[in-house]
Specification:
Elements (H helix, E strand, L loop, with lengths): L2 H30 L4 H24 L9 H14 L5 H7 L2 H20 L1 H11 L4 H18 L2 H18 L5 H14 L8 H10 L3 H26 L1 H4 L16 H19 L4 H13 L6 H5 L4 H22 L3 H7 L5 H15 L1 H13 L4 H14 L9 H12 L6 H24 L2
């Protein structure tokens, strides 16, 4: 390994070892040195170190020199919070929000059934075949990605639509980039509309106890306008692609659809949405419908399980404990005072803080970090809606802003299409600023 690459790896391993030793030492210090300064303060120091190190590793996406991903970072951080005494094991169990994990798991199973049955591919192919002009294709893709992401997890929508868009645009010898940008950005924007649109909204729905219908009534209008803005910004900044477009129907292979499975999945999804708007707890509705979908003789359960992002569930569980440990050891009852000093009760300030944090450490860790502060605001209801809006719209700022973006970029790269940082940023940055401003103005009216 070249020297330039060895140094970060050695540094990463050394820091990880030091943090582990610090956490273990902090855990035994109160027993060995009771009543002393070290025995009293070792725990909070270790908790702060573990918290900062965990979030830094999450921001980077890995620990140099170690083969551990974000889920592993969260799990190790949670274990060290318990080891250093920041959080007793019983409190660590209670810190894990089972409602969020249950909702996320249930939605993953529903989405897996829609995907395996061919429903997503059928809907996308049907819509794309009706696009006779490049501008119409852009509009249809924006609408489809946004609408599907409003009710289903946006990452899954990008996973399904990206190959279809690549197939269509490359067969027509057009530039795939603006259409792929539309899929990623519309999926992010559309997912703002409901609690089940993305993982961070699921967290917020559980923390805030805002009803599904009320959440949608508050943020769906902003998402709808945001989709129009996304279409306009992409069309404007890539106008050479759309000025003299050919009026041709794209050639697409007939998608493979399993009729019985597709019908079951569609009925289950419709029933799930009805239950959401009827006021049923989202986690309860999702896991019940998901469980019923597993009762079939046509698809082996293992195929559905293979579609579930288990590492995301693990990362959620670990982050719950990491944040709870830091809050318990470092903040105590001062969260309201800290929120007041930072002026987080002002929607523009809270939106800016959320957007910046979401682009530094990703949106899910940002939500967990902001949780105690938002809960202590004079109007936590408005605070949670603001955080949901800003954290999701902020995902469009750079290509690293959301998992949905990375899915589209990686799928494109596999077909030889490059979406560079600047390709994304020149569209995503202005779109993010406009949509967040729109969201702040809209929520200020409530």
């Amino acid at each position: 390994m070249p020297t330039g690459r060895r140094r970060p790896a050695i540094l990463g391993r050394s820091l990880a070892t030091a943090i582990v030793l610090l956490a273990v030492a902090a855990g035994v210090a109160p027993l060995l040195l009771p009543g002393t300064l070290i025995g009293r303060d070792a725990g909070p120091v270790a908790a702060a170190t573990v918290f900062v190190a965990s979030y830094l590793a999450l921001a980077i996406g890995r620990i140099p020199g170690l083969a551990v991903d974000r889920a592993g970072v969260a799990l190790v951080g949670a274990a060290l919070m318990v080891a250093c005494g920041a959080l007793p094991l019983e409190d660590a169990y209670r810190a894990v929000d089972l409602d969020t994990l249950t909702l996320l798991l249930g939605m993953m199973i529903v989405v897996a059934n829609l995907r395996l049955s061919g429903v997503f591919a059928l809907v996308a192919a049907w819509a794309v075949r009706r696009a006779r002009h490049p501008l119409a294709l852009l509009a249809i893709l924006t609408a489809i990605a946004g609408l599907l992401s409003a009710f289903l997890v946006n990452d899954a929508i990008c996973l399904v639509l990206s190959p279809i868009v690549l197939e269509v645009t490359l067969s027509l010898r057009r530039n795939p980039v603006p259409y792929l940008l539309a899929v990623a950005m519309a999926a992010n924007i559309g997912s703002t509309a409901t609690i089940t649109g993305n993982p961070q909204n699921m967290l917020i729905g559980s923390f805030s106890q805002i009803g599904y219908a009320q959440f949608a009534a508050s943020l769906a209008p902003v998402a709808a306008i945001g989709l129009v803005l996304a279409f306009m910004v992409i069309a404007l900044l890539h106008r050479s692609e759309f000025v003299a477009g050919e009026r041709r129907a794209p050639a697409l292979p007939q998608p493979r659809v399993y009729n019985v499975l597709a019908l079951r999945a569609l009925v289950a999804t419709a029933a799930l949405i009805v239950l959401f708007f009827a006021g049923q707890p989202p986690a309860k509705a999702a896991i019940v419908i998901a469980g019923l979908l597993l009762v079939t003789r046509r698809v082996r359960s293992e195929r559905v399980y293979a579609e579930i992002d288990w590492s995301l569930l693990l990362m959620f569980a670990g982050l719950f404990v990491v944040v709870a440990g830091a809050e318990h050891a470092l903040l105590g009852g001062e969260t309201a005072a800290v929120a007041g000093r930072l002026h987080l009760d002002r929607l523009p300030v809270l939106s800016l803080a959320t957007a910046v944090l979401s682009n530094i450490v990703s949106n899910v860790p940002a939500i967990l970090l902001l949780r105690p502060f938002v809960a202590s605001l004079p109007d936590p209801h408005a605070g949670w809606l603001t955080v949901a809006m800003a954290s999701t719209f902020a995902g469009n700022f750079t290509v690293l802003g959301s998992i949905a973006n990375l899915i589209v970029v990686q799928r494109a790269a596999a077909r030889g299409v490059t979406i560079g940082f600047w390709d994304y940023f020149k569209v995503g940055a202005p779109l993010t600023l406009i949509t967040i401003l729109l969201g702040v103005l809209w929520l200020s009216l409530f």
